[in-house]
Specification:
Layout (H helix, E strand, L loop, with lengths): L1 H5 L3 H13 L7 H13 L3 H13 L8 H13 L3 H12 L9
């Protein structure tokens, strides 16, 4: 997977990030996940914007929680029709669940 990602395959970049976020087949590593997600997003891979937005929103795997960046990425994915991103944006805006104390 890493070889395909390094070769520029956007889907591989996105899948590799998931491996790092969840610790599947590799040690959990938020910085590596963020790096690969950012590259996939910059390449135009909408699914990566959704996952990156959720990582920023939740702080998964040690990714630094950043609600402004979460909104940006989730909005980008939601604009492309990604339903989970739209739902998480709604939770952030309504301050529901884990977002009830978010400014």
């Amino acid at each position: 997977m890493k070889e395909a990602a390094e070769a520029g395959n956007l889907r591989a970049m996105s899948l590799l990030n998931g491996m790092y976020l969840l610790g599947r087949g590799v040690c959990e590593n938020g910085k590596e996940a963020e790096r690969w997600l950012r590259q996939a997003v910059d390449g135009g891979f909408t699914d990566a914007a959704s996952v990156l937005g959720m990582a920023y929103a939740t702080g998964k795997a040690g990714v630094k929680r950043n609600i402004r960046l979460a909104r940006e990425m989730l909005s980008r994915a939601a604009a492309e029709g990604e339903e989970q991103s739209r739902q998480m944006l709604e939770m952030i805006e309504k301050r529901q669940g884990m977002f009830r104390n978010v400014e």
